[in-house]
Amino acid sequence: DQQVKQNSPSLSVQEGRISILNCDYTNSMFDYFLWYKKYPAEGPTFLISISSIKDKNEDGRFTVFLNKSAKHLSLHIVPSQPGDSAVYFCAASALTGETSGSRLTFGEGTQLTVNP
Amino acid sequence: GAGVSQSPSNKVTEKGKDVELRCDPISGHTALYWYRQSLGQGLEFLIYFQGNSAPDKSGLPSDRFSAERTGGSVSTLTIQRTQQEDSAVYLCASKLGRSLYNEQFFGPGTRLTVL
Known about the structure:
The complex is a heterodimer.
Chain A: E1 4-5, E2 10-14, E3 19-25, E4 32-38, E5 45-51, E6 56-59, E7 62-67, E8 72-77, E9 86-93, E10 105-106, E11 110-115
Parallel strand pairs in A: 2-11
Antiparallel strand pairs in A: 1-3, 3-8, 4-5, 4-9, 6-7, 7-8, 9-10, 9-11
Chain B: E1 5-7, E2 10-13, E3 19-24, E4 31-37, E5 43-50, E6 65-69, E7 75-79, E8 88-95, E9 105-106, E10 110-114
Parallel strand pairs in B: 2-10
Antiparallel strand pairs in B: 1-3, 3-7, 4-5, 4-8, 6-7, 8-9, 8-10
């Protein structure tokens, strides 16, 4: 049961253009969403997050949009740069109990390639 | 060190052997997580430690998997009688406190290959 899905395994964009990465979830208990970026042979690093009380969060070139009714979120990168080429993971979390400690449920990842 | 470290970085083993994977979290982080990423899959939660509380083992896929965290710091994930389907990258993460909003910092992972 894949509760977080990233349906596009790969995305290729030109430098300077917008990159849009999408993510869908099924569990209505999720109330915090994150994007992680992963380079080869490294662990994922946190990029940006959004709480379910918001529908948009912006940090520099990165903006995350949340549509709770559609259970959909997206990450916009603009302008895209070659150094943004990496795998991007969408993740979701819910407070499920005293000891569950905000485990993250991840999507499969999207490989973004930004071409110079 | 400043970040989460894991060892070994790569491990190749034969089916049926036991393996131990080690995680050194960031100093002072009370929360520690193990995840694994199989080929073409997202990261799958395995187990969570928070301070002296009982660990959340609900993500462990079978009783061949176990983990411990000694002294609230270093953690070891043990896989007994390894199977080929155990081949994956095993990632450890640590976090300060138990707040939902605190960032999880990941190590580089251990790539396990079971022949």
